[in-house]
Amino acid sequence: MQRVDYFLIFDIKTILPQYVELGWNEGSSVALRQFRNL
């Protein structure tokens, strides 16, 4: 289970910045809403 948790954390760390960049570049709250839904 530790490996699964590690991969989940790794995926979150790689996906989170992408959502932040989308929110900043587009200047809209769409990315933030999608992130909250996750």
Give a verbal description of the structure.
It contains two helices and no strands. The longest helix is centred in the middle third of the chain and has 25 residues, at 2-26. The protein has helices at residues 2-26, 30-37. It is elongated, with a radius of gyration of 12 Å. Helix 1 (2-26) runs antiparallel to helix 2. The mean pLDDT is 70. It is mainly alpha-helical and 38 residues long.
Keywords, please?
mainly alpha; 87% helix; elongated; 38 residues
Mean pLDDT: 70
Give a count of the beta strands, DSSP E runs of length 2 or more: 0
Radius of gyration: 12 Å
Give the helices and strands as they follow along the chain. HH
Q: Regions with pLDDT < 50 over 5+ consecutive residues? A: none
Helix percent band = over 70%
Largest sheet: none
Query: Per the principal axes of the C-alpha atoms, what is the gross shape?
Result: elongated
The CA-CA distance between the termini, in Å, is 21 Å
Strand content bin: under 5%
Number of helices: 2
- Look at the helices and sheets and give the structural class: mainly alpha
Outline:
The protein has 38 residues and is mostly helical. The chain is built from two helices and no strands.
